[in-house]
Amino acid sequence: STSRRNDGFPGDFIGALPVNSVIHPAGRPINTSTINVLRGPVETAQNQSVFMEAYDIPRVIRRREIEPIHVLIYGRQRENPEAIAKLRRHLTTRTRFVVPYEHLKPDAECFGYLSAQLRTAGYEAVSVPPTVTVGPRHASEWRLIHGKAEAVACSDWMSVERRAFLAGRFAYWDEWGRDGRGIVRVADEE
Known about the structure:
Blueprint lengths: L12 E2 L2 E2 L13 H8 L5 H10 L4 H4 L7 E4 L7 H11 L4 E4 L15 E5 L2 E6 L11 H4 L2 E2 L1 H6 L6 H20 L11
Parallel strand pairs: 3-4, 6-7
Antiparallel strand pairs: 1-2, 5-6
């Protein structure tokens, strides 16, 4: 079957997390040449430049070296373990992984990541985790993401006090990041 019976459809939410999936027709082999085509756009310096322009990557981030990691989320292990094992053997490299859906899990090291989406007016915050810290370390990049206070206001995972604190501090650190002044110390994280 091609439906996502119990897991939701693109645009739905599972818990508080958005579902973003592409339905793959059951029983049909995946077109691995598509995966190879998707890799190409970001693997050379010239193509990385085009990628950064197309996705409006801020200049402060463009100075960094990028090594793209591709993750193909494919099927459920219990549905066809042999096929998934074969796909993993065929496609997995140092920077490319095949993961069955039930192996997805939160990563503790990502406790402070914002989720953002590129829109016509620039980057807009989609969600802010309750564990996020604010400070000078990410101020120059995060100032380019609009709607952080609105994303915090929508979080069911934070107290009212935490939401108010973050909304105010985002404004402060955005201004600090715009001016680029001061010494960056980890101790300044809030």
